[in-house]
Structures are given as C-alpha cells and as structure tokens.
Specification:
The structure is a homodimer of 187-residue chains. With 187 residues, the first copy, chain A, is mainly α. Chain A contains 8 helices and no strands. The first copy, chain A, binds a DNA duplex (30 and 30 nucleotides) through loops.
DNA sequence: AGCTTTCAGCTAACAGAGTTAGCCAAACCT
DNA sequence: AGGTTTGGCTAACTCTGTTAGCTGAAAGCT
C-alpha cells in the first residue's frame, strides 16, 4: 500500500474544494477519503474529525477571503475601495460557497484560535476600506458591523437562492454599494 | 399504549421549540421523539423525515417572523416603522435561533411551497415599511434586498457570536437602523 | 351497545456516517 | 543495516435515520 503523501493542509484543501463542489452538507468523510485516494479512517491521522475539519475549512476560507478583499482594495480609496472590496467578497463567496458556508454559525474557541485570527484579518481589510471615509472613531465599530452584516447577508442569501423573484441580482448589488457609500459619506 | 394525540403541527412545533433550546444541529429525531413522549419511528406517521421536518420548521419560523414584523409596524410609518420592524425581526431571531437557522440555505421547491408562501409574507411586511419612504418603483426590489441582507446578516452574525469584540451590540443595531433610514431617505 | 375500520404507536431490523483500536509496512534517521 | 516513527489499512462499534410489519386503541357505523 503506497503512501498517499497527505498532510493536514492537503486534506483541508481537498475538503474545501469538495465542499464547493457538492455543498457543505454533502461533504462526508467517506467522500473526502475517496477524493484524496485513501480509506476513511486514514483521514483521522491528519484531522481530528468532522468538526475539526469544518473549523479548518472555515479558517482557510476566512484567510482566503481576507486575501481576496485585501488584494482587491490595493491602490483604491473611498468609494472605489468600497466597491472593490464588496465585489471581491461576493465573488469569493459565490465561487466558494461550500467553504464559506463552513464559516457560518461557528464560534472561535478563543482569541488565539486560527479561526479568530483569520476573522480579524478579514475585518482588517474592511477596516482599511472605512479609513477612506470621514468616520468618527466612536462610529467605526458600528460601521464595520454594518458592512459585515450587509455583505454577509447579501452573499449568503444569494448563495442559497434566497432572492426569489427576478430583478437582476448584480444590479441590486451595485445598488447596495452605492447605498452604503452614500450612507458612510453622510454619516 | 395510550395514544399521545400528536399531529404534524404538534410535532413541528415541538421540533422548533427543541431546536431553539439545543440548537438546530443538535435536533435529532430521537431527541424530538423523547420530547413528545413517543418512540422515534412514530414520528414518521406525522412528518416525512428529517428534511421534511426541517422545511416545516422553516416555514413555521418564516410565518412567525412575518407575524412579528407585521404586527410591530402597525400604526407606524417611516423611520418608526423601520425601527419597529428591525427590532421585531432581530428579537425574533434571537429568541428563536434554532427555528430561524432552519430557514438558512433552504430552497422552496416552487411558488406554492409553504416555504415560499411564508417567505413572501415576511417580504410583504418589509415592503410595507418601504412604502413609508419616497422610493422609485424601480428601486423597490433593490431596497427590499438591502433590508433583508442587512437584518439577516446582522441577526445571523450575532446569533453565532460573530461579533467578537466588545462594542455594545444593541448600540450597533440602533446605529444600523439610523444608517438605513438615512440611506432610504436620501435615495 | 356492539362491530368494524382505521391508524398512531410499537418492536425489530437495516443502512449509512463517524469514529476508535490495533496491525503493518513505508519512510526516515542514524 | 537496524530501529523508530508514522501513514495507511482492516475490523468493529456507535449513533442516527429510516422502513416494515404488527397490534391495540380510538373513531365511526348500524
């Protein structure tokens, strides 16, 4: 039995990719094992179990999202940065719905949890966007939560087909960006 | 063996209550059976299975949310209606996190699916809020999606402890209401 | 009331996913 | 080469969901 040359990172990456393909709910240990060319119990040499796998996929997703958003806003400020960040975030969620779903409803165990660290990285990218607006220091946290709620809500609703009727979704999203920009400017 | 006097509605109601208590992820058929005083297989006389149960809980939650929001805005208009709707919605999600979670990531099978009907009822309540603002007909859908995204995002993030640091969450929520009000007014 | 029919709840049994235990051989390290 | 580590395997167990088939209590009919 030749070795497959796996390590935790490879298993998590494969799990994230598989979740994107089949949906997080259908990501099973057996399916993942088959994908990486190994029998199910062998996965336990690399991850602690299904819950651990989920948390690692979530941390990976948040880090990737932070990279995507952080990269997208380079060289932009104000409304351009806001639009770039929003589009990059939504694109990431739509391209990687499975791994992003892994981040929903999950709580970091403490401030040093890789999940919490990755979350702060993503938050940092949005904070950078807000620096381009004249926002009182006391309003920063509120504005940050507003942005998170707005983009997270939109992306998850769209990812689950929550918008039923037919008005163009891209158009709604651009409208949302304009709305947030106006609001942040008029604060 | 005396009969328990169950029917689908009773099972679904108990399932929703249990989901609120233990979390949707921990809602198991066995636990629900125990709660209603019956052996597990007996549940299948009332609901089709776990997925069917989930959908029914989701429909119940959406109807209840629609009632809560619709009731809260009675007699109010404009910003008062917006604030009342937002607070009622958030309160509902925080009081019933389990059943609300059942609505996430679920797709109605068609326009007559009770889930779709309930979803439209909730949407109708938010539409009523928007009537208090001067919004162009072409912007209505966008504004509606904005409100849904904002409240859904905020409520779900808070329900999963997604807001890590310490700024007061109620305060952020009131800030969000003011933000949305300004934005809708300046549209 | 008695008879019939229906059906809610039961036990038994199975399928599938997650997980643990324990073995063995491949890779690594002197 | 010898010894150690460790990744992969098989076997086996648990727990959850589900189906099949039985049975007696409730509801309806005459």
């Amino acid at each position: 039995m030749p070795r497959a040359g796996l390590d935790p990172a490879a298993v998590v990456a494969a799990g994230a990719a598989l979740a994107d393909e089949v949906g997080l709910a259908n990501l099973t240990m057996g399916l993942l094992a088959e994908r990486v060319g190994v029998r199910t119990p062998s996965l336990y040499k690399h991850v602690g179990g299904q819950e651990d796998l989920n948390r690692r996929i979530a941390a990976l997703a948040l880090n990737e999202a932070a990279d995507a958003v952080g990269g997208a806003i380079q060289g932009y400020a104000g409304r351009d940065a806001l639009a770039a960040a929003a589009r990059a975030f939504r694109a990431f969620v739509l391209e990687h719905p499975g791994r992003y779903a892994a981040t929903i409803g999950i709580e970091p165990s403490g401030p040093d949890d890789p999940l919490a660290v990755a979350g702060r990285r993503l938050l940092g990218a949005f904070t950078a966007v807000l620096r381009g607006y004249q926002i009182a220091e006391s309003d920063m946290d509120h504005a940050l939560r507003m942005l998170r709620s707005l983009w997270h809500g939109f992306a998850t609703l769209q990812a689950s087909n929550g918008f039923q009727w037919s008005a163009d979704i891209d158009e709604s999203f651009e409208w949302l960006i304009a709305f947030a920009d106006r609001g942040l400017r008029a604060g």
